[in-house]
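Newbie here. two chains, one complex. Structure please?
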Amino acid sequence: METTLIPILDNDLAPRFDLASDVLIVSVTRETSAMGKIDEKVVVLDTPSPEAMCRLALAENIQTVICAGIEKEFFDFLEWKGIRVLDDICGPVDAILEAHFMGKISPGQSYY
Amino acid sequence: MMHSVNPAQLASLINDKDSLSGLFDELPLGVAVMDPHGTVLMINKAYETLTGVGREHAVGLKCLHALRCDYCVKGCPVMFGWDQKKGHKSEANIISRSREKIFVRLTVAPLLNEAGNIRGIIETVTPGSSHSLDEAMGGTFGLGELVGRSPQIRKIFSMTPSIAQTDSPVLITGETGTGKDMLAEEIHNESDRNDGPFIKVNCGALPEKLLESELFGHTKNALPGADHAKPGRLRMAHGGTLFITEISDLPMQLQTKLLAYMDDHVVYPVGSTRGVRTDVRIMVASHHNLDGMVKQKSFRQDLLYRLNVIQLNLPPLRERGEDILLLQDHFMKMFQTRFGKTLDGFSKNAEKLLNSYAYPGNIRELRNLIEYAVSFCDSTVVRMRHLPGYMLQGPGLPNNHTPATANHPVRTSAMDTDVVRNAPPERWEDVQRTMILDALVKTGGKKKQAAELLGWGRSTLWRKMKNFGIE
C-alpha cells in the first residue's frame, strides 16, 4: 500500500505546507500495474502548523508528501524520516494525483 | 485611477520590454499586476528574485500560488473580497522556491476605473525584518536602538547621517558583540535606500561552495542537489544594502569575485555566463584586523582599499565608560517589560560586580547577563546570586576582586553613578533631534540651509522634523 499526503485548499493543492488546515490522505493498493484500490480521507487540523503536519505524516505512515511551499527545515526532516517530498507543485488535486499515479510528477510542475 | 484598461491591453503594455516592464524591473520592490480575480498578469525582476518564481511560471497563476504568503489565508482582500476599495498593508511572510521563509512588507491595492470598478490589482512586496514578531509587539525588545553617551559613540552618531546619504562602501570594525550589525542596519534605515531590502550574509557560517551560491546565486543544476535556480543575496539586495559580516572569513577566490562585482556591479551566478546588473550598497564588518591579514596575505589588499572608503570602529564596552550604566538600565527596562516583572534595581554588590566586569563579549554579554538576572530574580532587587556564576571566575573579572570589599577599578564613582543614572539615556533619536535643532538655530530657522548644513536632502529634514514633532 502506498500512502500520499497532500495539503489542500478547496480542490487545489494548498500554497503552503505550514498553513493548510485540510489534508488529503490517499492510499493506493495496487492489484496490477493498471488497477488497484484507492482510499481517500480528509483530515482537518485544528491548528495548522508544520509540526502538526509532520506528526500527521509520521502517524499515517506516509510515503510521499506532495506540496507547494515548504520550509527547508521540514523538508529535510521529512526526507530524513524516509518520506519522499515533492514540492513546488501547484494545480488542482485531481490532476496532480493522476500525474502522481502515472509516475509523471516531478518538483516544480504546475497542473493548471 | 485607471481608465478602462482591459487585461489584454495591460498585458501587451507590460510585455513591451522597452516601456512598462523595463521600468518595473528597475524598481527595488517586488511588483505584481493582477486581474480583478487575482490572476497574475506580470511580475517584475525584484518579485522574481524574492520569491524565486520565474515570470514564465508566475503569469496565469493565482497570486496565492505565485507568492505563497501567509496573508493569503489571513484576510487578503484578493481572496476574501474588498470591504472598501482601498489598499491594504501587512507584515507577512512568504516561502520562496529555495524553501526559505522570508519576512516581507506587503501592500495590495485595487486599480479602479472611473466608475469605481476594480479593473486590476497591484501588489508590492519588500523584504522586511526577520524580527517582525518583535516589531509587532511594539518594539518592546528595542533591538533597533543604539544607546550611548560616551565621546566615541557620540562621534559615530554624528557621522552616521552623512554616511547614510552616500552610496560608498562602509567597513565597520570592532570586537564581537559591540553592535556592528545594528549600526549597519541603522545606516541603511537612515539612507535613501531604506525602502529597499537590507540583506545580511555571514561569511563565517557557510562553507566556500555554499557561500558562493549564497552570495552570487546559482542556476538550476549548477551544483549537486541544486534543483532550483537561486537568485543569491546580491540580487536579493537590489535597490538596498548587502551587509557582509565576518568578511575576514571570505575565501580568497570569493574575495576576487566580490572585487570584480564592486567594479562593474554585475552578478554572475554559479553555472551561468550571463551577468545581471544590480544596484547594491555594500557594507562589511569584521572583528579581525584586516590590515594584519593583508600583511599575512590572507586578505586581498585591493579589496580592503575598495571596502575601506568609510571606516567606523565601534569601541569595546570596557572603553565606553558611563555607557555601561546606561546600557544596564536600558536592558533592565527591556527585560522587565518582556518578562512582566517590576524590579527596583541592583544590590550594591551586584552593581559593583557589573561595573567592574570587563565584558569580553561586550554589549551582547551585558544584555545576556541582564536577561539572566531579570529572569532568575525572585525579589525586587537583583542580587549577586541572581547573576551567572561564571562572572566570578571568568576572564572578565579584574584580579583580586572581592565584590563586597573590592577597591575595584570602577569607571565612575558612586556619585557619578547617580548622575549618569538620573540623566536620560542618549539615544540615536535624541542625538538627531539635537542636531536638527542646532542646525535650525544656526541657520535662523531656514530649513533649506539647515538641510545643507546637516548633509541631508530637504525632504529628509522635513520628514525627520515631522517625525520628532519639531515645528
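Moderator note: The two ends of chain A are 28 Å apart (CA to CA). The helical segments of chain A are 50-59, 72-80, 93-101. Thread marked as resolved.
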